[in-house]
Amino acid sequence: MKSVSLATYLAVKEVIRNRGRFLLVALVIALITLLVLFIAALGEGLATGNRQYVANLDAQLIVFLEKSDYVITASRLETKTVKSIRRVEGVDDAGAIYTSNTEIVSLAEPLKVSMLGVEPGRPGMPTILEGREFRTGEARETVIDRNVALRSGIQVGDLIEIRSTQGTEDEFFELEVVGLVDGQSYFFQPTIFVPPATWEKIRPQSESELTSDTPFPSIIAVRLVEPSQTDVMSALLMEKVSNIEVTDIETTINNIPGYSAQQGTVQTQGIFTLLIGILVIGGFFQIQILQKVPQIGVLKAIGASNGVVGLSAVMQIILVTALGVGIGGGLTYLFSLGFPPTIPLTFNGERSLIAVILLLLIGPFGGMVSIIYAVRIEPLKALRLG
Fold this sequence. Notes:
alpha+beta; 2 domains; six-stranded mixed beta barrel; 10 strands; elongated
C-alpha cells in the first residue's frame, strides 16, 4: 500500500511540475481520440444509411430471384410468388417490396430519395409514428422517413411533387404525405413509401416498360410463425416455391453492394489510427524516461524499488492518456452537436465505448518499452559512478 501511495505521489507530482509538456501530449491524444471516435461514428453512419431499412424489417427471411446472389438490385420476382409463399406452412405473413429511386422537386433544392413500394399491414411496411398508412390501389399517397422531413421540412398533410423519367420524358407526380416513419434509410438515401400500384405508375421506366401495369417485386420479406426456424423454413420455401432463393436478414445486409468493403475500409482506418496513437505515446514516454535517467538513479539509490519506479511510470501514462481521452471525448460531443443531418455520422454507444476502452489501453501498451527501460536502470550507471 505504501509503494502504491509513493508511486502515485511521484507520478502526479511530475505531471504537475511539467504540466505544459504533459498537457501538450494529452492534447495530441485528444486529437487521436477525436479522430478515432469520428471514424467509428462515420463507419456506423455509413452502415446505417446502407442497411437501415433492411435491418429494421419485421421479418426473418428475405426471398430473392434464383441466382441473383442475394443482391436486391439483381432480383425481380413474379407477382404470384408472394401468394405462393403465404400458403407455405410455417409462414405467418409475407410482403412484397418494390425498389426504385426518385427525386422530390417541390423544394428549394431537389432531394433524391429511395422510393419503395410496400403493402400496408404486411412485412416491409414500417411502423407509423405519426399520421396513418396509405390506402391501397393507386392512391397518390406516401409515407416518408423522418430523415426526409429533417432535410426538407416536409410534414404530414403536405403535398410533394416528384420527378420520374418515363421513357425519354420527365413526368411529374403529386403525392400527399399521410404518415411519418423513422429509421428507414435505404442505399444511403432517405426513403418514401407508396402503394405497389402507385409505385408502378410513377417509378422511372424505360420505353419497353411503359406498356406494363404489373409491378414486379424486387424481394419478399417473410415473417415466420417460429422466428428461430430460419434454416428449416428457408429449405422448405425453396422446396415449395420455384425459381427463388432464400436467406436471412444478416446475409442480405452483407450482400448489399459495397457494404462489406466499405466497413472493412473504415475499420482499417480506425486500426491504423490506434497504431499511430501507440507510436506517439510510446515515443513521448521513451524520451521522457531518457531525460530523467539520473533522477531514477537517485530514487533507486535511496531505496526505491523497481516496483515503485515501474508503477509510477504506469500511473503517469494512464493519467495523461485518460486526460487526453477525456478532452477528446468532450470535443467529439461538442462537434457532433453542430453537424447537419446530411452527414452520415451515428454515435453508437457500444461502438464508441469500445473505441474509448481501446484508446485507454494504448497508453500503457505504447509506454511498455519506456516502463521496462525505467525498471532496468542501474543506479550506479545512471549516476555515472559505475
